[in-house]
Each structure stands twice: as structure tokens, then as C-alpha cells.
Design brief:
The protein is of the alpha+beta class and 171 residues long. The chain has 2 domains: 2-78, Alpha-Beta Plaits, CATH 3.30.70.260; 86-170, Alpha-Beta Plaits (2-Layer Sandwich). It is built from 4 helices and 8 strands; from the N terminus they run βαββαββαββαβ. It has helices at residues 16-26, 56-64, 101-111, 148-162, and strands at 2-11, 30-39, 42-51, 71-78, 86-96, 115-125, 132-143, 164-170. It has a 4-stranded antiparallel sheet with strand order 2-3-1-4, with helices on one face. It has a 4-stranded antiparallel sheet with strand order 6-7-5-8, covered by helices on one side. Helix 3 (101-111) packs antiparallel against helix 4. The longest helix is centred in the C-terminal third of the chain and has 15 residues, at 148-162. The relative contact order is 0.17.
Amino acid sequence: MAQLLLTAVGADRPGIVSSVAAKVAEQGGNWLESRMALLAGAFAGIVLVDIPDELVGGLRDSLAELAADGLDVTITPTGPISQPDQTTLSVRLIGHDRPGIISQVTGAMADLGVTIDDLETGVREAPMGDGVLFETSARVRITTATTVDDLRSALEGIAAELMVDIEMVED
């Protein structure tokens, strides 16, 4: 059995998810997990599927047909990964928007060997017309290479520098 990660990007229109799901089902694949979003008028989605090894080529050909409708689907083979001892945390950040916030936060995490499993970001108008707020929510994993205290210290330093609020909660 093969596990494949499908990445689909195209102009938004009704039926995009249905068209991808139909191709997966027609080719004998099983839809496992997905994340999808509308970003600046474009559809972006990632899907994890299982499919018998001998049917991968047929799925690849079938998904390529969606390009005629303006949907570009990329297929990446995946496999099981071993996960060492780890701690899972939820991290939330909110503060006035400015260039470089996500770069600094994710850079500090990378320097400590922290893995980001899920990341959502967005901007919204601040209450009382006080500019634009940047918000992010992440689910991260730290291994024995670092500690929760190391991550907390690094993020608190960034929070003070950027004047944002960062909170961490162990899952």
C-alpha cells in the first residue's frame, strides 16, 4: 500500500474537492486526512491518501486530467516516520502585524529543533481601529534535543522584542 500526499492548487470554483475525491475513489484510493483553504481567491489543499501500489500510476494519470479545469495536483510519496520521545504543545501568538513576525518565531523554533505539525496564520482589524492584528496558532513537537523551558525562553524573548503576546500550552 502506498501513502501519497496530494497538493492541489487552482482558482476557486464549486466542486474542486468533489472532483479530487472522485478521482481518488475511482482509482481505489482511500482519503485519510486533508487540510484545505481559500487564500486570496485561490483554492489550496493537501490530502493524504492510501492506495494499492499497483494503482498509483492510474491515480497520477487521473489527477493530471484536472489540469484542464485549472487545478494543478502534485503527488508526493510519503512513508511512516519514527517519532522519538517528544512533547506536543499548542502555541498562540497575537500582536500588531508587521513583516517578519512568522520568520522570527519559526526561526527560533527551528534553531531549537522544534517541529511544526500544524500552523495557521491570519490578519484581522484590531478593535477600536487600532491597526491590523496578526494571529497564529501552531501545534509543535519538541524532542529530547531541547526542553519546554528552552522554547518558552526563546519565545518570550521574541514576544518582548516584537511586542506580541505568545502563550504555550502542553497538549
